[in-house]
Design a protein that fits this description.
This protein has four helices and 19 strands. The protein is mostly beta strands. It has two domains: 118 residues, Cupredoxins -  blue copper proteins (Immunoglobulin-like), CATH 2.60.40; 141 residues, Sandwich (Immunoglobulin-like). The strands form four sheets. A six-stranded mixed sheet has the order 10-9-12-17-14-15, with no helix packed on it. Strands 11-19-18-13-16 form a five-stranded mixed sheet. A four-stranded mixed sheet has the order 2-1-4-6, with no helix packed on it. A hairpin with a 6-residue loop joins strand 1 and strand 2. The termini are far apart. The structure holds copper (II) ion. Copper (II) ion binds next to loops.
């Protein structure tokens, strides 16, 4: 082979690209701090307040997003003004329940690290006792562990949305009722009843959006206390379901897929490309659906191009 200037340049480019690729794949440390807060939050579209317990003031807590292999360097702060101990249990962590997940008293803080070794979608929650009450009052959220690489089996979607469903118990103090699954009146979707459903709640102002034909990935977390979720897209079919959000678990053409309590899965939907459609993502368990667990997604050519991307995956 004749060595020319252009072939040398090409070889250099290939070597550089391989090097950069290796750099991108290298693990990083992601620092995350959360503050346990005992604060009122609004739990519906008309502004009803509820004495919640939260991470950083909101139900659900913020989305933590890392890549497989990353180290999560986590600190939980429990301010002195709180009345209760709190803790953090990341389902993406493989650690010691008695050490890393131990309770932190008011005025204290806890720091720990873990390596997110398995790609997927995971719940996190407070595990302080009584745990039923800490979860029911709002101390939960989502950690996404992205795979190092997207593949044909697990393609990068056009849009992504995080949906966390939970049970709402208006009597925040009665944790015995929570244990018995008694007294829950509504389902919350990302912290609000019918959060994205103007059909069932005229006060709702938000919906999920996509362009017709886009691949939309729903990262769904079941933060209920006692009830599994039967997730179904009304007027659609899940193109793929990835149980636990793992790229290794692929199911095709699903109408309804179950998510156990404290479980999470990824649901891909691809609407018809040639027309505008609406779907409703619903927990088909009727007692949950009709009490708040319905989310409208509009697939239309004028969909807001920023929704479902970057920091707008938890709308
Ligand atoms: Cu707590």
């Amino acid at each position: 082979m004749k060595i020319t200037k252009s072939s040398l340049l090409m070889a250099a480019t290939i070597a550089l690209t391989a090097f950069m690729g290796g750099q991108q794949a290298s693990a990083k440390t992601v620092r995350v701090t959360m503050t346990a807060m005992e604060n009122d939050v609004v739990i519906d579209n008309k502004g009803t307040k509820y004495p919640a317990w939260t991470f950083d003031g909101a139900i659900p807590g913020k989305v933590v997003r890392v890549t497989e292999g990353d180290v999560v360097d986590f600190t939980l702060v429990n301010p002195k003004k709180n009345k209760n101990s709190h803790s953090m249990d990341f389902h993406a962590a493989e650690v010691d329940v008695l050490k890393e997940f131990a309770e932190v008293k008011p005025g204290g803080s806890k720091h720990f690290k873990f390596t997110a070794r398995r790609a997927g979608i995971y719940m996190y929650h407070c595990g302080a006792g009584p745990m039923v009450q800490h979860i029911a009052r709002g101390m939960f959220g989502t950690i996404i562990v992205d795979p190092k690489k997207y593949t044909e089996d697990f393609p990068k979607p056009d849009r992504e949305y995080v949906i966390v469903q939970s049970q709402f118990f208006p009597n925040a103090e009665n944790y015995q009722a929570m244990l018995q699954n008694a007294g829950w009146t509504n389902s919350l979707i990302n912290g609000k009843i019918f959060h994205y459903d103007p059909v069932h709640d005229p006060n709702a102002t938000k919906v999920l959006m996509a362009l017709p034909g886009e691949r939309v990935r729903i990262f769904f977390v079941n933060a209920n206390i006692n009830m599994p979720v039967a997730l179904h897209p009304i007027a659609g079919i899940w193109d793929r379901v990835y149980p636990n959000g793992s790229p290794k678990n692929v199911l095709y053409d699903m109408q309804t897929y179950g998510v156990p309590v404290a479980g999470a899965s990824a649901f891909d939907i691809v609407s018809p490309a040639d027309k505008a459609t609406n779907i409703a993502i619903v927990d088909h368990t009727m007692s949950a659906a009709l009490r708040g667990a319905i989310t409208v997604m509009m697939n239309r050519p004028d969909a807001d191009p920023t929704l479902g991307k970057g920091d707008k995956i938890l709308p």
